[in-house]
Amino acid sequence: MSKIQKYLIGVAAFVVVFFGFVIVRIGVAQPSDSIKLAKIPKESQLNMKAYENAYPLEYKSFMRNNEMAPSPTGYGGSQEFQRLDQEPEMLENFKGYKFSLDYADDRGHTYAGIDLMKSKRFPGQPGACITCKTPYVGKFYEESGWQYASKPVAEMTAQIPEDGWFSCATCHEPDTMALRVYQPAFIEAMQRRGIDVKQASNQDMRSYVCGQCHVEYYFDTKDKHVVLPWDKGLTAEDMYAYYSEKPGGFEQDWVHPDSKTKVLKAQHPDYETWSKGAHADAGVTCVDCHMPFMRDNGQKYTSHFMSSPLKTIEDSCLKCHDQDKDTLIQRVKTIHDNTFKLQRIAGNTVAKAHLTVKAAIDAGATDEQLTAAHEYLRQAQWYWDFCAAENGVGFHNPDQIMRTLGLSIDCAHQAIEAANAAVKGNI
Questions:
Q1: Which residues have CB under 8 Å from 231's CB, separation 6+?
Q2: Dihedral of CA 287/289/293/294: which sign?
Q3: Which fold has domain 43-64+73-422?
Q4: Rounded distance, CA 51 to CA 66, Å?
Q5: H or E element at residue 255
Q6: DSSP-assigned letters across all residues of 58-116
Q7: Strands 293-296 and 299-302
Q8: Among 143, 89, 104, which Cα is nearest to 351's?
Q9: Secondary-structure percent of the chain, ordered helix, strand, coil, rounded to 5
Q10: Cα(254)–Cα(260) distance, rounded to whole angstroms?
Q11: Every domain of the chain and the residues it spans
Q12: What's the N-to-C CA distance of the chain in angstroms?
């Protein structure tokens, strides 16, 4: 046997041993990557506790949402604090509305029901307020359609058990654990856009399950059912154009007591902002970042600790990005710092505009003379609040958020100028 033959035999033996080892490893690991479906009793499928023993890794990670801790950048954590203290301009901008009484920052999903019922905004609200808080909404909707939305919220919350708020059934079909969308307003909004969520791919569903709740919405004037204002598009400008047409008679959330402006209240438009951003363009879903794959003793599972991706940066970010951990955190912090600074400028300029229009009213300006000022101020408030209510602090789409905050500042200054012009500068 020649040296070359011996060499080739040696190489072949190495290849067989190496790839044999890899195949064995894959064969051993593969069964642990699959999820064994558990039989959840029908009567408890909507309750979180029923899944504890059936899916222990997922359940354990979900319970981490009880943690109250800041994110590595200082923004977007899960601490309990009052935004009215952090951003006092909100006291003026939300004056006359319940958000001026309580604007507690959102904590983890495990607090969904607790935080709803303890909020100072809770008393007197309609049942529509539970729409994104519990899978029991699917049950209520199946029984009577949107009727639950117009009932008193306290009446509806009384029908939800302690562990029946945000649970596995919010995002999964209990029998198959397939991803599902139960929120009727999201389904209806997508239908109006020509999208049938029942035909959605699993990849689309990895964003839809989050997007069904992390969205802008309003309550219909007739029966309080939830409506997503997406008919003209998903940007702040698209939605403002939609609201300008007074859909279904909806004109404003409230009239500001100082400026007498008919203003809108934005609600966490996270899905809309993400959908126009770089990660969405690259096919990266909400779940990829906020619920990454992890392993526990070799068993693969999806983390249900839904917090800042920077808290799980090795699994959420570094599997795609080749920068080091500290560099990525600093990049995100820069976006957060710049966004929050501009957001505060916009909010304070809007507050100044409210007070300037009030001064013009006190000086004798009529509604007709203040038409332009009211319109500019309405836009300024909407664009500022769209960004302030969005949970990404700019990260989901830095370009769009910066543009929207710029629009707010510009409109607020034009409102101030229009108010001064109405009384010929005598304020």
A1: 192, 193, 242, 247
A2: negative
A3: Flavocytochrome C3; Chain A, domain 2 (1.10.1130)
A4: 17
A5: strand 254-255
A6: HHHHHGGGG-----TTSSS-----BHHHH-THHHHHTTTSGGGT--BPP--GGGHHHHH
A7: antiparallel
A8: 89
A9: 55, 5, 40
A10: 9
A11: 43-64+73-422
A12: 104
Q: How much is the pTM?
A: 0.90
Question: Kindly report the CA angle at 66 between 63 and 68, in degrees rounded to 5?
Answer: 145
Pairing between strand 254-255 and 218-219?
A: unpaired
Distance CA 288, CA 283 (A): 10
| Residue that has been written with the tokens 């019922």 in this structure | 117
**Residue 38 and residue 163: Cα distance in Å, rounded?**
19
pLDDT band at 4 (very low <50, low <70, confident <90, very high): low
When computed from its CA atoms, the radius of gyration of the chain, rounded to whole angstroms, is 25
Give 223-277 pLDDT, tens digit per residue: 999 999 999 999 999 999 999 999 999 999 999 999 999 999 999 999 999 999 9
Burial 18-42 (b: 16+ CB within 10 A, else e): eeeeeeeeeeeeeeeeeeeeeebee
Cα 269 from Cα 288, distance rounded (Å)? 19
